[in-house]
């Protein structure tokens, strides 16, 4: 019992010093999204999203594919073959629950899936490897896009929405051109 009193006094002194220092033990930084919450947040983006002339597929493995209509494969009046652009994507979850997409590679095909014809030239303003963008939910059935970087920021002036199948089939205005 003789040794217990000094230990008890030392413990109480430690509590008093902690209380007087103003430290609450809590961090003043915002909490980060936990691994579990990150997975749940990302799961809400998984699926197929579309807007006039484009399709975005996001997988549970945090990868994706964007496909867009580039029009006739060549700039000839007699050209009947149509081509599309394809971009392989990877995604990360931001602390606020939005996701960041990074384009890994871009290639072009005909709508039939065949290679583009000889003489095809892509638009230099099309997406390129390294381009990045952010997606965030705008209600239950829409994603809102913000493109980063000078090269792609002009896209922020157009329709920035992606629609799920519900919004697309309901004819929502955001799903058009």
Overview of the structural elements:
- With 177 residues, the chain is α+β, with helices and mostly antiparallel strands.
- The protein has a single domain (33-175), classed as Lipocalin.
- It is 18% helix and 33% strand.
- It has three helices and eight strands.
- Strands 1-2-3-4-5-6-7-8 form an eight-stranded antiparallel β-sheet.
- A hairpin with a 2-residue loop joins strand 1 (47-51) and strand 2.
- It is globular.
- Residues 1-31 have low confidence and may be disordered.
Query: Could you give a short account of the major beta sheet?
Result: 8 strands, antiparallel
Q: Radius of gyration, Cα only, in angstroms?
A: 26 Å
- Could you say which structural class the secondary elements and strand pairing correspond to? alpha+beta
CATH fold group: Lipocalin
Highest-level CATH class: Mainly Beta
Brief sketch in words of this structure:
By secondary structure, the protein is of the alpha+beta class. The protein contains three helices and eight strands; from the N terminus they run ααββββββββα.
Secondary structure: elements and pairs:
Layout: H1 4-20, H2 35-43, E1 47-51, E2 54-58, E3 63-72, E4 82-93, E5 99-110, E6 132-137, E7 142-147, E8 161-163, H3 165-170
Antiparallel strand pairs: 1-2, 2-3, 3-4, 4-5, 5-6, 6-7, 7-8
Features:
8 strands; 18% helix; 8-stranded antiparallel β-sheet; 177 residues; alpha+beta; Lipocalin
